Amino acid sequence: MVRSNRKVRVGRVISNKMDQSVVVAIEWRQQHPIYKKSVKRITKLHAHDSDNKCQIGDLVSLMETRPLSKMKRWRVTNIINTDHIQIIAPEQIENLEEPAENREESSEAPAEAEETN
Questions:
Q1: How many structural domains does the chain have?
Q2: DSSP of 28-80, one letter per residue?
Q3: What is the pLDDT of residues 12-70, one digit of tens each?
Q4: Which residues constitute the domain of residue 28?
Q5: Does 96 map to a domain?
Q6: Does any domain span residue 53?
Q7: CATH code (residue 12)
Q8: Could you tell me if residue 60 is inside a domain?
Q9: How far are the Cα atoms of 12, 26, 67 from residue 73, in angstroms, in the given order?
Q10: pTM above 0.85, yes or no
Q11: Which of 3, 38, 82, 91 is deepest in the core (most CB within 10 A)?
């Protein structure tokens, strides 16, 4: 295959748990044959990431390549955008709740609306 004829895709990394490999989700739309509505489809591709730089949520560019393993037929050419997804422990979720000031304001607003009716 000539490099200029290789397929190029852009997708978002959904898994990086393997060594030098990532799973990338490519989202595309297709028209439903009967209802003619645009339907979102997702294709998952296994790609080679030699430097282990990709994180979950990154937008990456992929290029078609020779078979590297049973599943890998693509390689990451560059990382376009990095949107890191934060992993939060269950203990930290309690600390993320709204401050007391916001709760008081939200509880007063419906009471005022009821008085006007």
A1: 1
A2: EEEE-TTT--EEEEEEEEEEE-TT----TT-EEEEEE-S--SSS--EEEEEEE
A3: 999 999 999 999 999 999 999 999 999 999 999 999 999 999 999 999 999 999 999 99
A4: 3-86
A5: no
A6: yes
A7: 2.40.50.140
A8: yes
A9: 17, 14, 5
A10: no
A11: 82
